[in-house]
Amino acid sequence: MKKSLIALGFGTLGLGIAEFVMMAILPFVARDLGVDIPTAGHFISAYALGVFCGAPGLTFVRRFPLKNILLGLTVIMLVGNLFAALSANYAMLLVGRFISGLPHGAYFGVASIVAEKLADHGKGSQAVSIMVAGMTIANLFGVPLGTSICTLMSWRMTFILVAIISIGVFYYIYKWVPQVEGLPRSNYKSQFHFMRNAAPWLIIFSTMLGNGAVFCFYSYVSPYLTDSCGFAADVIPFLMVLAGFGMVVGNLVSGRLSDRFTPGRVACVMQVVISAALLGLFFAHTIQWAAVLLMCVCTFGLFAVSSPLQISIIHFSKGGELLGAACIQMAFNLGNAICAATGGVPLRHGFDYEYTALIAMPVALIGAILTFIFVKKYESRQLKTNQ
Which residues, 6+ apart, have CB-to-CB distance to 356 below 8 Å? Predict the structure, then answer.
């Protein structure tokens, strides 16, 4: 495996911990800052909105070397997580989470293009999945580690951990990632030309709904497992490891399947599977082993969808690849923000945590329908043209 791809994956590891650990430590943060859990859910949305606002900034720096852009983004990652760790109240942590999210989408956008440029012929999807693997490994090891640090010490130390990782990311990108061929020079307006077609919009909205729907449930996975399923609090880190394992496997499997079949087809099938799993989570919450299995199916599907769609947008955004790749992360995290807030709606009206999965199911199904339309109308046509 190329060291450059490992360096890129190390960056997504840090970003993954920063994004997902809040879902595991939410009760601790809420208690320390004196807010209820639905209100603390705004910290998840603040990070996602930071991603949404930060990614478009790539249109202004696209002429810089891609490696230099990555290094700059890791500095913002460091600053944001230090700010979050030092936050004294609800408002400060909101700002810290927003800053932490700013480099996320932009990093994934740039790193996706760099990974594909560094990949061997015919293995672009696998290269991108290796880069994204850091995000899934964050859920397998990083989030449980952050949760344990929170339990033993403080939730603030969890964000200090991410800040330390940011320093390592900067070093390894500087040392291991080569300067790759830059993007073709073009004026600002031409970067948006690909958006005149329907294909990228289908991919964007499919990502926002199909992937974001998982966060209706997963944003509140910790209280779901304890309150709805009856698990003890000290078991949660172990269950988060299982959920992270599902993400790792889903990401790696989807990379291979996307190179063998097509990214859109893989994403569509997995979005249907996610829809079924979310419905099952509502009905099976009293059966602990079934709830855990279905949770892992959801996390497997989450990254079995996002990586293929990341590749799809690059293929369908010629002339605006950097913006297109960033748009997927904007869509992913806007869906995260909206659906995390949506998942809190039934909770505010006194419903139990399993209703977050029920409200998510039709949203995921709409995402699957949009992906199906993209596959039939655009991806299949492109495949025939290439043959």
Answer: 216, 217, 219, 220, 224, 343, 344, 346, 347
Question: Cα(93)–Cα(85) distance, rounded to whole angstroms?
Answer: 8
Six-digit token string for 260: 């063998």
Q: Are 99 and 51 in contact (CB under 8 A)?
A: no
Helix ranges, the chain (H): 3-33, 37-40, 42-54, 58-61, 66-85, 90-118, 124-137, 143-152, 155-176, 198-206, 212-218, 221-223, 236-260, 263-283, 288-315, 321-348, 355-374, 380-386
Q: How far apart are CA 138 and CA 241, in angstroms?
A: 10
Count of residues in the chain:
387
Q: What is the pTM of this model?
A: 0.76
Report domain extents, the chain.
3-178+191-386
Give residue 110's Cα distance to chain centre: 15
d(CA 333, CA 215): 10
- Record the tokens describing residue 100, joined without a space: 């932490």
For residue 233, what are its two tokens? 């609090």
How confident is the chain (387 residues) per 10-residue block, as mean pLDDT?
85 88 85 86 84 78 84 94 92 93 87 81 73 79 82 90 93 89 64 81 90 85 88 83 84 81 89 94 91 92 82 76 76 79 84 89 93 88 59
Spatial CB neighbours of 271, under 8 Å, sequence gap ≥ 6: 206, 210, 301, 305, 364, 365, 367, 368, 371
Secondary-structure class of domain 3-178+191-386 per CATH: mainly alpha
Amino acid at site 58: L
